[in-house]
């Protein structure tokens, strides 16, 4: 299944290079983050490797992907033009340079540079917020997806403001004269980043994507679940972050319950759409299925952990055993699944759409390697499962014979296996999508990233697409 739905307007989308450039840069951040994730448990990664790892994956891979996807699909879904293509191009430079410098400063312990690179990072994100905000302001009335995106933009402003304050805190005592401590600011920053920016965007997109690509509609049983998520979830995010910032367990606990309820509601909505699909399974839908299951598995232990101690730093992203379920199992698989359609879709529209009806052209899902998609899915599921089990501590008492490598427990071995398996899966995933751009795109990778290096005279020549095996 790879047809373009009939109810979206592709004429309003920005130039292909704008979103694709975001996606390729995001894949670079993904691979850098995965490498740090493998090296950190071995004790060979330099500086603040874990913090750099988290920022490369969340701010780099996930948020840069979100920036590219919103820049592409808000105009398409909303039937309007992006406010400024120049700002859409400039936002990536700000975020890319700022994040690369920020992560590099953490790795080499060059803390005085953190505020400067943090300011560049903030500027890039705020350009994105302004550009998308101005685009959304021209659309009325907002649908459920657009409302989620607007909320996510507001959360992003707050997250980056707190993040810059934390970066300045490495060199100046910015929290000495305010009634909050650095740890509480850090907890609020992380809460708003993951549950505010990322999951709000993911949930908003799923209302469109899960119905569009399962070719099913929300029904009367989904309506109350949607209300729980759309109304209760954002209130919960604000309350949870506010409770952590102000040190209020009561406010934090109320917010935590609403957040868990919203995640469960979305999991059921997504699961029901997948169950009622009228199309065959695709790489996109398979990864959405993993995400729906991960949401429920995360919610069960998290509800108990947050009821007992919503402000505990160990519970920032839920139960200690659920961090990878949320960040990898939910966020990672939704982003990967979405990209398995978005990247081929953009390339197909610009390369083949005007030939449709005049000559034989491939379908959207013919552009990537289906076998490699199955391999990377298996590796990513294995990696996510191993990392989740390692967090749960089930292997803690098991000794392993690699103490010379810094691996002395079963937990460390499971973490290493999970990191390697995830690395293999993400490498296959990245190779598959980059292959789509190289084989079928209208520009070379160098020309896509740096237009001054573009030497293409026209559409890239691709090999004929062979008949693909069943997904």
UniProtKB/TrEMBL annotation:
Ordered alphabetically, the record's keywords are:
Membrane, Transmembrane, Transmembrane helix
SUPFAM superfamilies per the record?
Cytochrome c oxidase subunit I-like (SSF81442)
Top-level taxon of origin: Archaea
Membrane-spanning intervals of the chain: 23-44, 56-77, 89-111, 117-137, 149-170, 190-210, 253-270, 290-309, 321-349, 377-400, 412-434
Q: What is this protein called?
A: Cbb3-type cytochrome c oxidase subunit I
Species of the source: Halobellus rubicundus
